[in-house]
Amino acid sequence: MGHIINGKQIAAQTQVSITERIEAFTAETGVKPGLTVVLVGEDQASQVYVRNKEKRAVAAGINSAVIRLEATTSEAELLAVVEQLNQAEEVHGILVQLPLPKTIDADKVLDRISPLKDVDGFHPINVGNLAIGKEAFVPCTPAGIIRLIKSTGETIAGKEAVVVGRSNIVGKPVAQLLLQENATVTIAHSRTTDLAAVTKRADILVVATGLAKFIKKEHLKPGAIVIDVGMDRDENNRLCGDVDFDDCIDVAGYLTPVPGGVGPMTITMLLENTLISAERHTN
Ligand SMILES: Nc1nc2c(c(=O)[nH]1)N[C@@H](CN(C=O)c1ccc(C(=O)N[C@@H](CCC(=O)O)C(=O)O)cc1)CN2
């Protein structure tokens, strides 16, 4: 039976140490890290995530604000809000919650956020700096994934890592981070022929396909560390991941559950990025 990686517990422990660092930073500088989240529209899941971000930011000692805008907000109006936040001295981190309404070009908005306040790590300058190993804001979900892998105590250097999925938000950045940790990295995707032959090589398998219970035990190397980034619905409309947990738990060495795996780490890493940004903005 593989070990379950308890993301909820690791996120809570990590939040305690970030809170202590924020306390020390504020005591030394008199500055409270500031985070503003912009939420456009009524997407139910986004509302829950944004409320959780606000609650956890406040608990960590961050000055947290949420700007809620109507679903009918135009792209120009949203860009003007981002511009104001770029100029606001007390705001160290800006996050525009995704998805945005279809009437708004998300890339255009993300590109307008100052790269120095881009705590999501989605701005092309941060993406580029991450790729060439320079100082960058690291996207929160990929950063959390690396922490979860490290929590197993296994070394990453020299291991075969396979990432299934090539999105800009998870697949590509997590591959970059694994490469920085000296893993041998393969990115597989929907056009990969004989996926199981590729995933079976993986000592570390990160799955971000968006397909419910897509990865079965036949895809795994016995003992592998398996990180499930999926947030899908099963046949009973229950939240599940891209990995068939019940099928894989006896073959994997370590496996993240859904819920309670990668998701909780995303918000923790956002708090850390906000602290890092406040430190960089404060001399
Ligand atoms: N600007 C951004 N937008 C979005 C991001 C992001 O990183 N930046 N990620 C997701 C949503 N998200 C945070 O914003 C997020 C998703 C899920 C979780 C989480 O803790 N999930 C729980 C389950 C929750 C449930 O029951 O529905 C879990 O996995 O245990 C946290 C944050 C898209 N948008």
Bound molecules: the ligand Nc1nc2c(c(=O)[nH]1)N[C@@H](CN(C=O)c1ccc(C(=O)N[C@@H](CCC(=O)O)C(=O)O)cc1)CN2
Look up the CATH topology of the largest domain: Rossmann fold
Structural category is alpha/beta
Question: What summary fits the major beta sheet?
Answer: 6 strands, parallel
Task: Report the uncertain regions.
Answer: none
- Biggest sheet, spatial arrangement of strands: 1-11-8-7-5-6
Share in helix: 40-55%
Number of helices: 10
- CATH H-level superfamily of the largest domain: NAD(P)-binding Rossmann-like Domain
Number of E strands:
11
Taking the alpha carbons of the first and last residues, their distance comes to 50 Å
N-to-C SSE string, H for helix and E for strand: EHEHEHEHHHEHEHEEEEHEH
The CATH class of the largest domain is: Alpha Beta
Strand content: 15-25%
Shape: globular
Nearest-angstrom radius of gyration?
Answer: 19 Å
CATH architecture of the largest domain: 3-Layer(aba) Sandwich
Number of domains: 2
Q: What would the average pLDDT be, to the nearest integer?
A: 98
GO biological process, one term: L-histidine biosynthetic process
Catalytic activity: (6R)-5,10-methenyltetrahydrofolate + H2O = (6R)-10-formyltetrahydrofolate + H(+); (6R)-5,10-methylene-5,6,7,8-tetrahydrofolate + NADP(+) = (6R)-5,10-methenyltetrahydrofolate + NADPH
EC number: 1.5.1.5, 3.5.4.9
Protein name: Bifunctional protein FolD
